Amino acid sequence: MACKIVNNLAPDKPREWQKNDGLSARNWTSVLHKGSYNVRKQCRHCIEPSCASVCPVGALYKTETGAVVYDKEKCLGCRYCMMACPYGIPRYDWDSPVPYIEKCILCYYNIKNGNIKEPACCSACPTEATIFGERDKLLKEARIRIEKEPEKYLNHIYGEYEVGGTNVIYITHKDCPLDFLYYYNQRVEKGIKLIGQPEINEPLPITTKWAMGAVPSVFVGMGVIMSGTYWIIKRRQQLKKNNEDINLTRDSDGKS
Amino acid sequence: MERVNKVKLILWTILGGSLAVAITRFIFGLGVTTNLSDNSPWGFWIGFDVMGGVALASGGFVIAAFYYIFGKKALYSIVRAAILTAFLGYVSVVIGLLFDLGLPWNIWHMIIYWNPHSPLFEVGWCVMLYLSVLTLEFAPVVLEKYNRIKLLASVHRFLDKIKIPLVILGIMLSTLHQSSLGSLFLAMPYRLHPLWYSPIIPIIFFVSAICLGLMMVMVGSLTSSYLYKKEYEKDILIQISKYSAWILSFYAILRFSDIIIRGAGVFLSTWSWGTFLFWLETLLSIIIPLFTFSIPYSRNKISILYFGALTGVIGIVFNRLNVGGLTHLNNLTEIGTFYFPSWMELVISAGVVSTSILVFFYFIENYKVWDKNPIDLYSIPRTKPLLTSLSACLEAEPNVIRAKLSFAFVIAFGFAFAFISEESIYNEGCEKSPVVRARGGDTLLIDGNRNNYGVSFAHKKHQSVVASCGYCHHLNKPGDKATGCYECHNDMYRQSDAFQHSWHSSSQGANLGCFKCHSWYENKGKNFVFTSDKLTQLCLKCHKDIIPADSRIEYLKTYKTLSYTDAMHNLCIKCHERMFSQDALLRKQNPNLTRCSNCHNEFEHSLKEKKIFVKKEKNQWVVIPSVLQNR
Fold this sequence. Notes:
Oligomer: heterodimer
Mean pLDDT of chain A: 86
Largest interface: A-B, 72 and 84 residues
């Protein structure tokens, strides 16, 4: 595969910790067979990536080209990104004693260095099933293709709005909807509206926003409350003690 | 002191075992030591060691708040123990985390690379800061022992002066990270079961941590009193149980109103694994402790109090495990595999816990953690041990105890190393076995004993006669008696001759679940049921098109070899009959193959019609030597 050559990935051996979707630490993209249709699975490079938002050291970050890339020098291996990805994309070098996160980086460094003009998968595809370009232009192209053959394509661009939009977008045949790629559609409460669950088109980082925003105020607030309580209770105890002292002195006075 | 020493012996044994596993984990990586996978990247270490550990250690800040801030001076005698528990709890959280992180030597990166959007970043910082605060809070206990040294004494005085600000800072930090551990899961709404996922999960976590902290203090106090045969601090415990009853009821109301307001109430009554876990958790964490704490009779009885507190502790740690992985999507639905921690994960966690308990014992025995020190362990007058006497080994003499503990440690270390399977550690993963087109069509050339002489076998004919492929191909099932050949000729039929069971079932091979082939309903899947017609279809589903390329069975184009019937009748049966008549033992065993009816089901019927069993006088067969070599 072109991807393997460009990104210098070793051949893969199936292991027990892999998912059955063909992706692994050494396969950054895979082709799934859905009936008579083929679907390529890879990182979607979300516009507001959940993985980058939850990484405690910012090892995953969004670049100016839209690719979400990984800095293995920063990573500490907590695997929070794997838990948070709505598409379940990042994979781990489970068999290595020095493991890193692995995922598609849209050939970011190679394109930046000028080695290649577009990602390896796009230049390898002979039928223009996978193409590379500006997001606006790709959306336009997708719409043109759908309009040209409306009886063939499903009138939905996957990745236009889901989780706040992704930079890798899909159009598909009517018989093969791509909802299965997204965890959202495999949830237990499918079809039940629950308060507090994010909408499918909401970017995931907003779920943690209120909690993280509340952090400073909770910190300061708790400090103020605790110091206040301490002061009040100490004062009250002192007053009580003073009263007792006064009573004691009165008692002794009375006696004398 | 018998009790403590017994417990110490157990703890040192666990420690020895976990040290061996720890070494393995750092040399060979996470994959072979844990059951973590791309589907469930977080497991027991995060759920128990980190989330459970932090929550268990919350006793420190709760008791400190009650004692220093709210002025509940009655709690005086347990404050130090509570802070020590918290300190050790956090130390073990950090150690547990080091095992779980893929690159633990990069943990300090959190200090220099900042991502304030991440809840984990906040948790990391708070844990670091709070650990330092706890160290300062606990330091006076150690320092007061060395008051003669001037420098240490002045440090002690300084720490005493800033005690209250330290306590307040500790409470602030605890509030933050106890709740932020819940915020971690806000980012994965699709993973968590709706009974647990809530936008206010940080608040739920904070409240439950306070309950857990109080109950853990009770458990800790009761356990150590029992071990050191100390008087139970009954009054304090009853007071704490009152506090925890109040907070627990608040927690229960919060939890259920949150579920109902969100509209997740429908899941409370569904019949599913997630709902079962929820009710189990509710029973353990809310119902039982609340019941025991709120009834005056049981509150006064130490054993019931202990039971209630312990159940509550287990229940809330179970809540952390549920949130941390048990109720995640991949464990509840068909996607992916069910995660259960491997024994090595469990041993590491047990080792981390035992370490902290041992350190706890150390501090209790050597510093003034309690009002009254436990009776000095080693003040017993020393008797001169006789090497020959057995009683010397059982005495509570310090050197003997130490020797026993070290012995247990070393033995456990060795045994644990022996238990770690070499196979899983050096497993490099399967090569994908090359496949060729299936050729089980008409006639096959079978070279059973691998001497390059084959017999021709009318495969198609047998396919129509025998109901199941497994009848002939499933030769390596343990105790399989489907074909009689295997009974005697185990030298001829290698274990993996026709059908590799382990390959078909392993996730690295064909990855078929047990019940893909074995019937769940009949015999509870213990036996391969041969009678079902479906089984033939089941094998054919894959094997219509593919067959391993290294198979020793060749498709035959010329019919010059010995046919299977001829081979059976002229070689096998003849020999079997002879052996059967000569060997009394064999007659007693009565192997299957001598019975014609083994293959010819309608033997009686056929005998009447005289269709088979006509002995040929002249052999019509020709053997082609080294057929396989010439190809």
